[in-house]
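Lab notebook page, bench 4
Experiment: in silico fold of construct C2
Operator: M.H.
Input chain length: 289 residues
Purpose: comparison with the prior construct
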Amino acid sequence: MIKLIASDMDGTLLDSDMQLSQKNIDAIHYANSKGIEFMVCTGRNRTEALPPLEEAGIDCAMITLNGAQVFDKKGNVLFSAPIEKDTVEQILTVLEDHNIYYEISTNKGTYSESKEQRIENFASQLAEVTPHLTHKMAIAMTVARLEFLPIRFVKSLRELITNEDIIVLKIICFHKDGAIHLGPAAAQLDTFEELAVTSSGQNNIEINHRSAQKGIAVAQVAKDRDIKLDEVMTIGDNLNDVSMIQIAGVSFAMGNALPEVIDYAKYQTKTNIESGVGLAIFKAIDDNL
């Protein structure tokens, strides 16, 4: 019997408007009524993840930043896996050598050096998942949405990380040319044994400490709750979801998932715009998967 459900957010739990459908909301409440805990497991930081959940009336624990931080329902940090500052310096050198825009997620929030580049890169990512959008429409929608994704702009990220109070949890990088431009940098970063390099879209790479992976975090949460892994259900769509797809007894790939994710998952559901998460939850419970 399933006792814990962990779901990715972007491209999974959230639809094209970055909201939870009513079917997804109903399914989460249905799971809770059966004594099954639901939690999100996302690449977002907590302040970015909260708005759509609060709007839907969903109060749950969170695995954020790909597993770099785990929070209980009240927002207390239960687990943290930062990147060492010396390693961060080396990462930034690699990214700058490849002329790649990046943002740094920390214990104090997410930081960037350029609002213009942030808008441009998020618009490209939005256009990737919503092909009918024109570039102008994607820019307009991005500007509106970024109001709900808090970020701080600084003159120098390198100077920021020298602050003793700043703990670096994730670095996310974007480039409009996707893998063609990001691939060489990702390959170079893959040689760092202490890092986990993954992706949540064709136009980005995400860099965490090797202990900050969704699968590791879900396993730790399950252990803390005395839940066996075969009693855990996970749902995702992209490469940063693979580790939690692999460890769960019941795993679903979204209909819009990458082929690699579909290959690893035990089951497949509908897309994120077809309430695939809700359908997967109802199926898993009613069919006693």
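Observations: The first strand starts at residue 4 and ends at 7. Residues 115-129 form the longest helix (15 residues).
Next step: discuss at group meeting.
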